[in-house]
From TrEMBL:
Species per Swiss-Prot/TrEMBL record: Methylophaga thiooxydans
EC number, UniProt record: 1.8.5.4
Presence of the UniProt keyword Acetylation in the record: no
The protein's name in its UniProt record: Sulfide-quinone reductase
Main location: membrane
Length: 423
């Protein structure tokens, strides 16, 4: 009997657990280790931060759902991965042996890389549901006494979509509260242009987002290096294509949300050597298998992916939801093949699908594959995207709570669109 352990129980880890159990059946053991007892739908965090959702609406307890599928669950997190010994030290100092390991931890939020950044500093975050709840508390106070907003992402970030979403969601929420006229808004980003999103743009993303920002009175600063944040003020350097400072901005704010750069979580980063890159992300091959430890696989935000292109400031490549599903399916199929003594063949297609709520409308893009050059690259907008994202939120939460690994209807619809998880 093989024992497969999955570290992480979010967008990558939980589907991996269900798919593995479906693939391996009762003759093999599957365990999940998480640092939280709940699952929550991360794409809904911007809604939580303005009070359009609550934590209870977008989350559920993991233990009952996993137990129903005969999957073991530990919520103490992982302190150390002893890769040479195929063993984990958990957060409660207990140990767990494994034959195969899937690393699906997500990232560590590198707020400490910029003075004053983050919830312990002077800016809000929507990276976790807890952060989003805290951001909503601050938002309620802000609505009573509005002023300037600074929103965006810092250098080294790789998750730009939520920053664009939250800027437009705040714009809509302010209009509904009838205080938008009291709130100058500035979008700050290391991207070389608006709509780059770490993907070198998708379809007409540059034109679309520039148009939306202009129509909604949102100013922007691109190729922006955030130097420091203090109470009510952000120091930003704007650079040229050689990363030389050409202008310094001191941006006042009463409310700010900035996406931080990511690094690998400690237990992954501490693998060291050739197992991880300098930022602590797990290195994997085309089979999602680690380059040093062949029984360790990785999926999701925790893996190393090079930037799409060279930019003046560090701009990482995002790992979008469908891309994560693609990596997860690859890891699952290749672990099953390895256990059964078959050749590893599955490779992720790395196609990307994104649905973004822009407050008064929505934007959707498809990039197939995610990294250019692409076979498919388009972006559209309309209210239908908002409805689609809301429907997907409900669908995905239902699917994860019930432990449904891969609905046939979902796969059929995506195949009709020419989108596949595997090459």
């Amino acid at each position: 009997m093989a024992h497969v352990v999955i570290i992480g129980a979010s967008t990558a880890g939980l589907p991996a657990a269900y798919e593995l159990k479906a693939a391996l059946g009762g003759q093999h053991r599957v365990s999940v280790v998480s640092n939280t007892p709940i699952f929550h739908f991360v794409p809904s965090n911007p809604w939580v931060a303005v009070g359009w959702r609550t934590k209870q609406q977008i989350s559920f307890d993991l233990l009952p759902s996993l137990a129903a599928k005969a999957i073991e669950f530990y919520d103490s997190g992982v302190k150390t991965i002893h890769a040479q010994d195929n063993q984990l030290t958990l957060g409660d100092e207990s140990t767990l042996e494994y034959d195969y390991l899937i690393v699906a931890t997500g990232p560590k939020l590198a707020f400490d890389e910029i003075e004053g950044l983050g919830p312990k500093g002077f800016t809000e975050s929507i990276c976790t549901v807890g952060h989003a709840e805290d951001a909503y508390v601050s938002w309620q106070d802000f609505i009573k006494d509005p002023g300037p907003i600074v929103v965006g992402a810092v250098q080294g970030a790789s998750c730009f979509g939520p920053a664009y979403e939250f800027a437009m969601i705040m714009n809509r929420a302010l209009r509904k509260a009838k205080v938008r006229h009291q709130v100058p808004m500035t979008f700050v980003t290391p991207e070389p242009y608006i709509g780059h999103m770490g993907l070198a743009g998708v379809g007409d993303s540059k034109t679309l987002f520039e148009s939306e920002f202009r129509k909604n009175d949102i100013k922007w600063i691109t190729q922006a290096r955030v130097k420091s944040v203090e109470s009510g003020k952000m120091l930003v350097e704007q650079v040229d294509d050689q990363a030389e400072t050409i202008k310094t901005h001191q941006l006042p704010f009463k409310y700010s949300m900035m996406i931080p750069a990511f690094t690998g979580v400690d237990c992954v980063a501490n693998l060291g050597g050739d197992a991880v890159n300098p930022r602590g992300f797990l290195k994997v091959d085309e089979y999602q298998r680690n380059l040093v430890y062949p029984n360790i696989f990785g999926t999701g935000v925790c893996i190393a992916i090079p930037p799409v292109e060279a930019t003046a400031l560090p701009v990482g490549a995002p790992k979008t939801g469908y891309m994560i599903e693609s990596m997860t399916k690859t890891a699952v199929e290749n672990i099953a093949a390895s256990i059964e003594g078959r050749e590893l063949k599955a490779q992720a297609s790395l196609n990307a699908i994104c649905l973004a709520d822009l407050g008064h409308t929505g934007a959707a893009f498809v990039a197939a594959p995610q990294l250019p050059p692409r076979n498919v690259a388009w972006m559209k907008k309309g209210r239908w995207v908002q409805w689609g994202k809301t429907a997907f939120e409900k669908y995905f939460l239902f699917k994860m709570k019930k432990g449904i690994p891969e609905p046939a209807l979902e796969n059929w619809v995506l195949k009709l669109l020419g989108i596949n998880k595997l090459k």
